[in-house]
Amino acid sequence: MSLVEINFDGIVGPSHNYAGLSLGNLAATAHAGDVSYPRAAALQGLEKMRGNMALGLAQGFFVPVPRPNADWLEAIAVDAVAGRALLATGWSASSMWTANAATVSPAPDTADGRCHLSVANLVTMPHRSHEWPDTLRQLQLAFANERHFAVHGPVPPCFGDEGAANHMRLSSAHGAAGLEVFVYGRAGGPFPARQHEQASRVIARRHGLDPERVLFIEQSPEAIAAGAFHNDVVAVANERVLFCHEQAFADPASAYAAIRQRFPEVEVVEVPTSAVSLAEAVRSYLFNAQLVTLPAGEQALVIPGEAWESPEVRAWLDAMIASNGPIRRIIPVDVRQSMANGGGPACLRLRVVADPATIDTRFLLDGPKAEILAKIIETHWPEQVDPADLGRENLAISVRKARGALLDALGLAELA
């Protein structure tokens, strides 16, 4: 069996809007009330996927979940008195950020030799808390081969779990046994810590991970207070490389020592605060990037255009490349619609190490399928959405029709 890393991106949904529902996500709240552009957003995401395929990387995708969620809106008794913020929770397109879809442990790490996936419960934010049943349905379809996959339901909601955005993996190669690093937060400060330590420990146990090849590290409270609502806003790992900000972890020296003890081959690439401030790291989403291994073996960093345009970040990246470190290429991409709602390139993808032959092909992208997706998006996705339009029946009809056209084209009637 040939194991490779496959990035599963979320197709940006037709209800993509800027309602500013995510407390602690500075970009999302800064753009609250702005007009969004779902068609442009989805095409930007698709172009990023095509770019990764052109690099020789395997690419999958997930489809938008049903919106508006009428059952959710009924359950919370939304009416004219409830207010627009509660109404908007049923229209959120945040499932596009599949880094929050699940936590994934590849087969080489698990006791039963299968790839384990636990769908995230996302209970901290109301607008995301009702995503998981529809996300779980997709995971169960895409990874239905029980010889190779085990798909788990959510961690009980008393423990907040935000998925792979708070999980990193270090290994000599994607297909080799690795060290899984779970990053959790603690309550305090102006914003909530979304990843509970016990949620991470539950996942490690249910996935059958070797306790000697697992670490639980606390995220820096300063980073959370600065807007790093998930660990992937300040740190990302790929194979032997850990790329992080100096203020990513509560106790950086202890974190690095623990990682080196269990995985001595690690190469820590730390960006000092003196070069890139924590505020600029969060604003530019330098670390919310895709750190990938190209077919020739070199590592590349796929970053948002906002990071490339930042003088601080650009200067540090140029110096890093000149120093001949482990990250050899920088690839800027345009995901501005996602960025304005609080998610960079890393938010849009879930990393799965598996044999592509064991996955439902309807969820795997190739050139012809990308063309089909582009035509459907160009034809059916709304050009723009004003938050004031949420709740209007004509928009609901348009959004449902767009998703239906996508499912029909992909042969995914089970998700209708």
Can you offer a commentary on this structure?
- This protein is α/β, with parallel strands linked by helices.
- The protein has a single domain, classed as Succinylarginine dihydrolase (L-arginine/glycine Amidinotransferase, Chain A, 5-stranded Propeller), CATH 3.75.10.20.
- About 30% of the residues lie in helices and about 20% in strands.
- The chain contains 15 helices and 15 strands.
- It has helices spanning about 25-30, 40-55, 70-75, 85-90, 125-130, 130-140, 195-205, 220-225, 250-260, 280-285, 305-310, 310-320, 335-340, 365-380, 395-410; strands spanning about 5-10, 60, 100-105, 115-120, 150, 165-170, 180-185, 215-220, 235-240, 240-245, 265-270, 290-295, 300-305, 325-335, 350-355.
- The chain has a 3-stranded mixed beta sheet with strand order 2-1-15, covered by helices on one side.
- Helix 7 (about 195-205) links the parallel strand 7 and strand 8 (about 215-220).
- Helix 2 packs antiparallel against helix 14 (about 365-380).
- It is globular and about 55 Å long.
- The chain starts with a strand and ends in a 6-residue tail after the last helix.
